[in-house]
Amino acid sequence: MANSLRKQALLDPMYYPVITLLITLIACVEFSDAVNAVDVYRLVQYDISGVPFGSRLSALNHHAGSSLFGSDLSRTVLILPVRELNLTLITEYIEQKKLLGGLLLLLPPKFSPGSIDSTFGADKDIASLRNKLLELEWLLMHSNIPYPVYFAFEDDNISAVLAEVKRNDANGQPATATTGGYKLVVAASDPKRIASPNIANIQGWLPGLKVDGDSNQLPTIAIVASYDTFGAAPALSVGSDSNGSGVVALLEIARLFSALYSNPKTRSRYNLLFGLTSGGPYNYNGTQKWLRSFDQRVRESIDYAICLNSVGSHGNQLHLHVSKPPENAYIQQIFQGFSTVAEELGLQVGLKHKKINISNPRVAWEHEQFSRMRVTATTLSGLSTAPELLDSTGGLADNRHFTSEASIIRSVKLVAESIARHIYSQEKKSIIIFADDSSLAVNPSYIRSWLELLSTTPRVAPFLSKNDPLIKALEKELADHTAEVNVQHEILDGMFTFYDSTSGKLHIYQVASVTFDLLLLLVLGSYLITLFSFLFITTRGLDDLISLFRRPPSRKVKTA
What we know:
By secondary structure, this protein is α/β, with parallel strands linked by helices. 36% of the residues lie in helices and 21% in strands.
């Protein structure tokens, strides 16, 4: 009977307001609304031969801070604008492997792939900031960082949060569980290794004119460009110059020669092979696999290959990089042909020789993969020296604003005119095949549209699926201008290991201090006790209320 009465009491309507207030109390103490939600991009996580690099964690849940000089930052997420960053301090902090809850680096909006500020490239302050970003990117990509690192773009909301965090830090009141403040949260699962990362090579042919009865293999000239990128933030690695410019130039050259080859009267006795390769940042692994897939007769038919790399930088100087000695007669012939056309265009072309070491797997230029298979090749690039591994591969500082459309147009004219004069045996004649006022003129609108597309499309190969829209678009475009288009899917060699979780959503919460929580608990608790007592007395009486707190009489067990 007593148990039955107790259950009825628990279900009495008098308890409903108490239960409601209790739920409200829990909600007030445990949860708060997000002040802001921000798109963030995680620092790349990868291994080289088992050695870890980049950010090794993705989940974030700590209070915000703004200074590297705190005593214990193991539970603090530092918000650091890149424009205000002291590279010396952050380098020391990372190299000394000091603990940190997380790092949020704020990039200027002008570095966003979607930014269209036409005055950007001419801004000296931005150019200086770009150099700082290049140094920072190199540091982060080549360090093993045991905490989450994210990039975001500055905006009014996050700037307001940072300003308040800075004020609190300056007043000696950094955000903690005791004092409250802002909490940064990225809900993410542990990064997972990408199994069997895919790389895709795309090729197309323009067959030369073969005379009836001629069984000899026609010579081939290959025009090649690597299309994928690599950078500190894979989701932001659009690589406008490295190597979006090379891809755009290749597509325009294919379009120009397709017009020539569409008419048997203007088709030369050379095959033209166009290759868009993947795996460029990883020792041009895709190029190696592509070349190995060729029949030996096809490789032997290649007269020479011209690889296009970073041909869109501002300036009027380009470099022909070769592996064969510069005094080689055929290298001299190629260089002379390019130099003649370059002079007509107001360009300067220099010859750069770098001997390859067959025993060293490191490949600095794409043409070196051809040279290793005894195919004459050269790389045309705005870069004067060979980049280091994973350097100049389309990172954070390589965007549309630092890529010159006019430079790409000149590079297209240089390559197309030089090849045309070679295959039509017009080297020593002052003839312009792709004249501006002709039907074979370079199309600036075509170049601009493809450059804008590539400048907004991240292309880090391990994160591109076999049916990625970009690969399909490149395949379709090459098919519009060439024949026998083929996509070769391969697996990236096992030296490199990559992990997922490249972007996420950062939630910024404003949380109260523990002192406030305790005061709130005290006030609401007192209110609940008072309300309960009042309701109980008015419905049951004071004696029943007192009996709830009276100790029940003990029962004595009688013994025989």
